[in-house]
Amino acid sequence: MAHSKLLDLLEIDLPIIQAPMAGVSTPEMAAAVSNAGGLGSLGVGSTNAAGAQTMIRAFCERSRRSLNVNVFCHAPPRADEPREAKWIERLRPEFARFRGEPPTGLEEIYRSFVEDDEMLAMLLVEKPKVVSFHFGLPSPERMQALRDAGIVLVASATSLAEARVLAAAGIDAIVAQGYEAGGHRGVFDPNADDDQLGTLVLTRLLARELSLPVIAAGGIMDGATIAAALRLGASAAQLGTAFIACDESQADAAYRAALKSEAAEHTVMTRAISGRPARCLANRFTALGKNVPEREVPEYPIAYDAGKALHAAARKHGQFGFGAWWAGQGAPLSRSMSTAELMATLRRELDPP
Q1: N or C, fewer C-beta in 10 Å, the chain?
Q2: What is the pLDDT of residues 10-67, one digit of tens each?
């Protein structure tokens, strides 16, 4: 019943949700997922309202099915010039390897939805079927405005405590993000203790303790693992890493090559790239951040300003090992094909003849 309830709420046919993956997902990918009966998603945490609107309208040109638009709800960062200056100096030798100069200062390159009035106004105009939150929640007033527009609200939790906060706020469904998931960890407070619960344990715990639909996320790469999550009480599964190698992905050639390499077997949780914990394929940046005390990394997304600059400097000289190659522990199970082909494959695996 919970499974059917969520599918009806989201107006989808399959219990498959493509993770938003800001910087990787595209309108073409999301539309292919939705047209195949799943829920396509767009991550707009790394763009502004105008950019997000362009993405949403590009999706609508390709599909009339449900769309999930994901926003980041992190606490706006506090500038700390001494800390940021020290971080720039730590990275200076790496810039020098590529005959580059680091930034003279770092900026907040992405604005949090908690204070982005333009993004809210745009969503109220475009009215995607779903808006999902990562890193916490916006204000009750913002959530109510979205509800009043008929939008389904979904949010991610990494623990039972976070999930209870979401339930109390009136969220319609909860993404249970396990520690093995790729990309940014959805913890509300990146500096608090993290129990690092795996997807299956977290999914089972939330399904048992809460009455809301649970969406399992982390390490799910094929129909067999989707089925396992459903048996544990999930109403659907969210897959991200499984879609990185798809034709419609924005992942560049180096990212795709790394996904097929030994690096896929050694994903690393690091905050050195962006300022928040995130799981990434092992590369030169993760090695650089391996022994860096967390307190020395600037806050998200200020640290990301430096990370992107270093990646750009390295790319000019043919070195791609400083990219944000977000991926989960299921990376070795990745498959290269079109999004439509992957969805058809997942459907067959989930419901074999």
Answers
A1: C
A2: 999 999 999 999 999 999 999 999 999 999 999 999 999 999 999 999 999 999 999 9
Residues 195 and 316 in one domain: no
Instruction: List phi, psi (to 5°) of 199.
Output: -60, -45
Identify whether 321 is part of a domain.
yes
Amino acid at 335: R
Same domain (yes/no): 173, 238: yes
Tally the domains of the chain: 2
Helix then strand count (H, E) for the chain reads 14, 11
**Same structural domain for residues 63 and 84?**
no
Q: Treating both helix axes as pointing N-terminal to C-terminal, what angle do 160-168 and 199-209 enclose, rounded to 10 degrees?
A: 40
CB within 8 A of 94, min separation 6: which ones? Answer: 288, 310, 314, 322
- Reported as a single tens digit per residue, the pLDDT across 234-260 is 999 999 999 999 999 999 999 999 999
How far apart, in Å, are the Cα atoms of 314 and each of 225, 280, 350? 37, 18, 42
β 173-177/183-184 pair status = unpaired
Does one domain contain both 64 and 89? no
Residues 70 and 101 in one domain: no
Q: Do residues 259 and 331 touch, judged by C-beta distance below 8 A?
A: yes
Here the tokens at position 145 are 């405005």
CA dist 110 and 240 (Å) reads 21
Distances (CA, A) of 245 to 171, 238, 252, 339: 31, 16, 9, 9
Q: To the nearest 10°, report the CA torsion of 167, 119, 113, 165.
A: -10
Cα→Cα distances 238→22, 201, 219, 301, 308, Å: 15, 16, 9, 24, 27
Helix (H) or strand (E) holding 16: strand 16-18
Q: How many Cα atoms occupy the beta-carbon half-sphere of 307 within 13 Å?
A: 27
What's the confidence (pLDDT) of residue 319?
92
Return the amino acid letter for 221: M
DSSP string, 173-184: EEEEE-TT-SEE
Sign of CA dihedral 71, 73, 78, 80: negative
Q: Which residue positions in the chain have pLDDT lower than 50?
A: none
